[in-house]
């Protein structure tokens, strides 16, 4: 059986860019740069474009070249990529134990509102 290629794992900077791109769905480098500048005005257009080109080469972004300005979109949906990264984290940092991951997350400090949301989800699962 042929081995499926590994899903590329984004760097921290690439994840930051994906957080901007996911809500947009698809966008030009200029549009992504404008969104990023709202939080980080120091980031240049050239930096954003280069990062998006690298992400395309790695397979993290797909690119539509049919228009003058290339339009980029995430190659994976947000929940799919997060699930893959989470599985990898559980294996590498928590010896395969999802329980250990959850306990570490809870110990790291969550707000009262987050705790209430988690409790509500757990109660719904018991039904």
From TrEMBL:
The keyword Transcription regulation applies. It comes from the Bacteria. Keywords: DNA-binding, Transcription, Transcription regulation. InterPro entries: BlaI_family, WH-like_DNA-bd_sf, WH_DNA-bd_sf. Belongs to the BlaI transcriptional regulatory family. This is BlaI/MecI/CopY family transcriptional regulator. It comes from Massilia soli.
């Amino acid at each position: 059986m042929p081995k499926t290629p590994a899903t590329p794992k984004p760097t921290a900077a690439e994840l930051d860019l994906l957080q901007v791109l996911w809500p947009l769905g698809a966008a030009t480098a200029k549009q992504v740069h404008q969104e990023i500048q709202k939080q980080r005005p120091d980031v240049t257009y050239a930096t954003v474009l280069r990062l998006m080109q690298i992400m395309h080469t790695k397979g993290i972004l797909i690119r539509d070249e049919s228009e003058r300005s290339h339009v980029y979109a995430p190659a994976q949906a947000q929940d799919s990529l997060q699930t893959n990264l989470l599985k990898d984290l559980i294996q590498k940092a928590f010896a395969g134990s999802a329980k250990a991951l959850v306990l570490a997350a809870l110990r790291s400090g969550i707000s009262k509102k987050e705790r209430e949301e988690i409790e509500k989800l757990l109660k719904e699962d018991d039904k």
